[in-house]
Design brief:
Blueprint: H1 4-15, H2 21-25, E1 35-40, E2 43-47
Antiparallel strand pairs: 1-2
């Protein structure tokens, strides 16, 4: 028999819907305009295409993840 926490985890995992990142990126061409493609743990998941210099900055109340598919982020 599964514990309550394992059952809750399994139920939560069944609610997660995978997305195809490359497919989502193909839906837009504009740069510097993040698009919301999902949500995870109450946080928005956004995709953006960047071009040119990226000015590093921070958001005091948010975490950010930069997952580079093509190119280099300096």
């Amino acid at each position: 028999m599964l514990s309550t926490s394992k059952t809750q985890l399994i139920n939560h995992m069944q609610d997660i819907k995978p997305i195809n990142i490359l497919e989502k990126l193909s839906l837009f061409t504009d740069h510097w305009s993040p698009k919301i493609v999902g949500e995870l743990n109450g946080q928005q998941v956004k995709l953006a295409k960047l071009k040119g210099e990226f000015v590093w900055h921070k958001h005091d109340k948010e975490d950010e993840l930069f997952f580079v598919i093509n190119g280099i982020l300096k």
